[in-house]
Structures are given as structure tokens and as C-alpha cells.
């Protein structure tokens, strides 16, 4: 017997891809924190076990990074996952409310 989802749990449409804004924030934050550590892209790739150009693809916003990879990056960069996804102080796109 096939299990049926309640109507409220059925997806109504194909999920939207992440906004460019989210990918740009992650790109900016990975690059900024990596540089603060004094690491090259190659070094961060090696530490995380990623393919050779993966960090470069993240830093230019070419790929939709998985949550699992955000977790790996946060662990290696000694920050939280939220640090990679939210505005960092100094980000030129950050606007305070006022």
C-alpha cells in the first residue's frame, strides 16, 4: 500500500534554486575567512577533501553548494555554518537597519 502525504505536506511546485544573493554571501564569506587564515584555495580544497577547483567554483558563485559541504567548510575554517551563510562585518552589501 502506497503511503500518501497529507495535502499540506505535498510540494506544490518544483523548489526554486537558491537566490544569487545567498550564493554571493557564501562566496564572499568563504573567500574572506580563507584569506584571514592565510590559506590558498588549493590548501582549503586539500583540507576538506574537495576536487581541485571546487573552492574556486564556490568563491565565484558557480555552484549550488550542498549543506554537507557547508558543514565541512565551517569545520575546517573554524566557524559556524551560519557564518558562511550570513553577512560578515565589512561585506559591502551589508546594510544596517535605521
Description:
With 98 residues, this protein is mainly α. It has a domain at 38-84: Orthogonal Bundle (434 Repressor (Amino-terminal Domain)). It is 48% helix and 0% strand. The chain has 5 helices and no strands. It has helices spanning 20-37, 41-48, 54-59, 67-76, 81-85. The radius of gyration is 17 Å and the shape is globular. The protein starts with 19 loop residues before the first helix and ends in a 13-residue tail after the last helix. 16% of the residues are buried. The model has no long low-confidence stretch (mean pLDDT 80).
Catalogue the unreliable spans.
Answer: none
CATH superfamily of the domain at 38-84: lambda repressor-like DNA-binding domains
Which structural class do the helices and strands define? mainly alpha
H and E string: HHHHH
Q: How far apart lie the N and C ends?
A: 57 Å
CATH topology of the domain at 38-84: 434 Repressor (Amino-terminal Domain)
Helix content: 40-55%
Sequence-ordered SSE layout with sheet pairings:
Elements: H1 20-37, H2 41-48, H3 54-59, H4 67-76, H5 81-85
List keywords for this structure.
98 residues; mainly alpha; 434 Repressor (Amino-terminal Domain); 0% strand
Question: Nutshell version of this structure?
Answer:
The chain is an all-alpha fold. The protein has helices spanning about 20-35, 40-50, 55-60, 65-75, 80-85.
